[in-house]
Amino acid sequence: MFKRLIRTSNNLKLKHKLLISYVLVVMIPVLIIGLAVTGYFRKQALDNAIGQTINNVEKVKSQTATLLRVPTDISNILMFNNELKEIVNKRYESVVELTSAYLAYKDFQEYKRLYREVAGIRFYSTNPTLINNLEFIPVDKQTEESYWYQKALQTTSIGWFYIPDKGDNPVHKLSLVRKVPFAEYRTEGVLMIEINQDELNGLLRQEPFETLITDEQGYVVAAKNTELVGKTLNELDFGVDLQNQAKGTLEADFQGEPSNIIIDEISPGSSMNRLKIISVFATKNIVKDANTISMIGMLFITLVLVIALLLVYIISFLTSNRLLRLSKHLNKLALGDLNVTSRIDGNDEIGQLSRQFNYMVKSINELMTQVVEATEQNNQLEIAQKEIKLKMMASQINPHFLFNALESIRMKAHIKGEAEIANIVRLLGKLMRKSLEIGSGKTTFRAELEMVRSYLEIQKFRYGDRLAFQIHIDPEVEKMYIPPLIIQPLVENAIVHGLENKEGTVRVNINIHLVKDVVQVCVDDDGAGITPERLADVMQFICGPEEQERSRIGMRNVHQRLTLTYGEPYGLQIKSVYGEGTEVSFTLPAGGDQHV
């Protein structure tokens, strides 16, 4: 299958390949991503709106609980109010006596005056001697049959109901309803505390979306749109049964528009029932901005894709046309026309191929005329190589002849009593032998320092009292392997440059110490020193890529070998104070596998 696909692709023209690749790789993925981004923005907008609404519902829930706590506390007080107990259970002989009792009792009016949450307080009693004064109300048949009254008589817990009565003095408010038993009189009554509608609606006035509070019968007891107060959920066009819906989030059509509905419940303390908080927002309004932005983005993306498609088509057409012209030139060359010339302009790959084609034709012509000359040149080259090889062999010097000559000079000086000259010749021979024996392998600190000591003795012979040196190495470091000739160039540099422009004795110190897991090598002198500008040039040279200065090649060679062998942190470090001296140091890792 894959081979067949490749074969089909190879059979397509280049412009068709470019167009198909553009559609598959650019256009379709961009459109898919655009649709995904649109959906993402829409979902984000909905999630943000739902999250905001849930937070608002929680705020309303908290504020409502705080508001209902006032009538709850009042009902708890009135449950044990002796004056209330006496006034509702006494049998009055006359209207004058009843009126005096009513006038003497001020608690209901006082609570209404002190608490703005309370719109009014009523007490429903079965005492037949009472007269309805809008505070103390005898129970009639309509009241006995009402839902809220029957629920209140079932328990002493608090009930929260919207009172939809149609009597002479209707309530039409959310009210606290609670049975108050009088055990000693074997009677009971129902206390009703009406909630201030303005206070209740005020909790919802600032909400961004339509928010309702309903009781267990589905009556709207408070709403942002106050015209909805008193209506039932069935009268409102939600499209679902919110009366029996558990708290949570759901989608439904509200007044013919797709909407999200957030439902929560509040259960005030000591209550027999709960209130529902319902917040509704239309999906269209929430995603309107996201849809607008997405639509503009999709139009922009579509415009860009169309323009890009047009450009791809034009480029593919021009490219194919130039390739066809080059193909015709190749066909002519294949037929033997060596005078063909390609005139395709441009600096792109096709233009380069055209120029390379012309170079190729020119080279073929030149090669055909130079075959004989090339053969003669090859013969001459072979002869020249043989002559060079013979000269190189003749220029080689046998090292043993040099060592034997130095030994003869040393013995002659020793026989004549020139012990110092004999010793210097011995050290020179030893130094040269060590240099030849090291090759490109590794050596030890001990062997390296033997060469350094020989070199220092020879220089001591040369400079006399002007040179003094000291070598110190920790015993545990002596057998550690190091790259060869890595300390001697530093010592040579210290002697050569330390004695310049410095009168008197110059002291060269070589110190090698093991500190934790690192070997510290330091070569210092108290010679002429280096100026800061010169020191910067030296550091730039030894760390640079090219050899520009013969006098620093040794140090540069050491620095590069250290960094190549151990890494960048292990290169040379140079410190110098002009007129006081110079210190060159480096560190090596003290690994166990580096010991003999």
TrEMBL record:
Question: What compartments host this protein?
Answer: Cell membrane
* Transmembrane residue ranges: 20-41, 295-318
Identify the residues that the record assigns to the HAMP domain, covering every copy: 317-369
Alphabetically sorted, this entry's keywords are:
Cell membrane, Coiled coil, Kinase, Membrane, Phosphoprotein, Transferase, Transmembrane, Transmembrane helix
The coiled-coil regions, if any, are 364-391
Which membrane topology describes this protein?
A: Multi-pass membrane protein
Q: Which SUPFAM superfamilies match?
A: ATPase domain of HSP90 chaperone/DNA topoisomerase II/histidine kinase (SSF55874), HAMP domain-like (SSF158472)
InterPro entries (UniProt xref)? Bact_2-comp_sensor_kinase, HAMP_dom, HATPase_C_sf, HATPase_dom, Sig_transdc_His_kin_internal
Q: Which GO terms describe its molecular function?
A: phosphorelay sensor kinase activity
Predominantly, its location class is membrane
- Matching SMART domains: HAMP (SM00304)
GO CC, alphabetical: plasma membrane
Under the heading PANTHER family, the entry gives: SENSOR HISTIDINE KINASE YPDA
**What protein name applies here?**
Two-component system sensor histidine kinase YesM
What is the protein's species of origin?
Paenibacillus pabuli
